[in-house]
UniProtKB/TrEMBL annotation:
Keywords: rRNA processing. This is Pre-rRNA-processing protein TSR2. The keyword Transmembrane helix does not apply. Belongs to the TSR2 family. Residues 135-150 have a biased composition (Acidic residues). It comes from the Eukaryota. Residues 120-203 are annotated as: Disordered. One of its GO terms (biological process) is rRNA processing.
């Protein structure tokens, strides 16, 4: 795999991969908060959309080998354009998930995208909230769909945000904290991810 040109996605896999890319980025709390708070200006949403397009193009139009380091750099630059530095390791996690999903889509395996769809549907269902008043006169949230503890994890995020450039702490992505930088394909479903170089610590 190292040094080989990237394989092309099939006509069936291409739209699935595009959808999966959007779903992964939409669950990235650092990016979502930067857009919601317009830390990159009024066009923050457009910048996030452009990032999605750039990632899809990077995977599908590149004639050079795909290295996770380059993808991390692309994500890092996009966040800087939003005046945001993600120093919680989420850039590496997002890059790993994208690389893994791409490998799966190349093999016609869309399971991870299907899981993202299901997670998105659950997230939508718990947002159907209405306010009720109990017998004591207190206001409660009556949540339809899944249990309340599955509601939007963004309420649990820790934010350290100086006015100039915020540092983002953890993202609400269902990722394994111990994901290795590279793993060989085995029975547990890991796929190989190639590193071109060691990245220095971001300042």
């Amino acid at each position: 795999m190292d040094g080989a040109p990237p394989r092309a996605l099939t006509a069936e896999a291409m739209p699935v991969f595009s959808e999966g890319t959007y779903l992964i980025l939409s669950r990235w709390s650092a990016l979502r908060m930067a857009v919601d708070n317009e830390w990159g200006g009024r066009d923050s949403s457009q910048k996030a959309d452009q990032l999605t397009s750039d990632i899809i193009s990077w995977f599908t139009q590149s004639r050079e080998p795909l290295y996770i380091d380059d993808l991390e750099a692309l994500l890092d630059e996009a966040m800087l354009s939003l005046n945001t530095e993600a120093e919680d390791g989420s850039i590496e996690e997002v890059a790993y998930k994208l690389m893994t999903m791409h490998e799966e889509c190349l093999e016609g395996n869309f399971q991870s995208v299907e899981s993202l769809r299901e997670s998105k549907q659950r997230e939508v269902s718990v947002h159907h909230v209405r306010q009720v008043v109990n017998e004591d006169g207190d206001e409660d949230d009556d949540i339809s769909g899944d249990d309340a503890n599955e509601n939007d994890n963004s309420s649990n995020m820790i934010l350290d945000a100086p006015a100039s450039r915020p540092n983002m702490n953890p993202v609400d992505m269902p990722v394994n904290d111990s994901i290795p930088k590279a793993a060989t394909e085995a029975g547990d479903g890991w796929v190989e991810v190639t590193h071109k170089r060691n990245r220095g610590k971001r300042n």
